[in-house]
Amino acid sequence: MYVGQLADLIAIQLLNWRWSWTSTIATGMVAPLISLIGLSRVSERGGSDDLLHLLVGALVLGICFENQNKLASHFAYMRATGALSQFAALPVRPALLVLASATAFFLLSLPSLFVTAVLGSLFLQVGFHLHLLIVIVVPMVTLPMAGLGVVIGSWARNINQAGAISVASTMVMVLIGGILVPPGSLPAGASIVGKISPATYAASAMNQVIAGPVTSRLLSDACFLIAFTVVTFVLATRRIRWRSGEE
């Protein structure tokens, strides 16, 4: 029953974006590629390892934070337009709507992830060392940021506030998480604070399955990301829990 409802909700969300999926894919590549090009000269000083770290960071920026920002705006928009009340009239659980929305935006982000990886690899002239676990890690690192985006969108007062909060949180997590620069080059304070940021663990997991090698740290990264995902999904579903057709 729940599987069928989830599939229907994913289809609804994808159909809602059928007119703008090309722009969604394009915008998902802009920020990562600009960041990659802008920081490439600095990273060249550290050799190929730093360049590969930069490329992986650009992929994390695209797959995680773009989804977070879009989901924050999406849920704020659904609240403002009454779309959540329409979903409330359906016999579905709020958790399924959150998961379906996260899944739909994840699927829409895959083409931009692929193009960013190919263009970035060609521009930086670095190669990947892909591990089979990448098929698990990529969706795993996306869900925590997606959940955070839903929390922001469901709690913000309006769409503009949701976008501002999401972008601000993105900038902070990118700064303290060692996403685009090696963690060792960050100030000590940033490294310490970064231990509570899901972006730190997302970048670590992605680096292991893309640049290698895969170590036991991947398990601790996965535990943190899964725990953060559960917390954000619970917070989001509690906020949008509807009663009598209201959010």
TrEMBL record:
Family, per entry: Belongs to the ABC-2 integral membrane protein family.
Localization per record: Cell membrane; Membrane
Protein name stated in the entry: Transport permease protein
UniProt domain ABC transmembrane type-2: residue ranges: 19-243
Keywords for this protein: Cell membrane, Membrane, Transmembrane, Transmembrane helix, Transport
Annotated InterPro entries: ABC2_TM, ABC2_TM_bact-type, Nod_factor_ABC_transporter
Organism encoding this protein: Streptomyces luomodiensis
Major subcellular site: membrane
Pfam families in the cross-refs: ABC2_membrane
PANTHER family: NODULATION PROTEIN J
Topology of this chain in the membrane: Multi-pass membrane protein
Transmembrane segments: 20-39, 104-124, 130-155, 162-181, 218-236
Coiled coil: none
PROSITE patterns: ABC_TM2
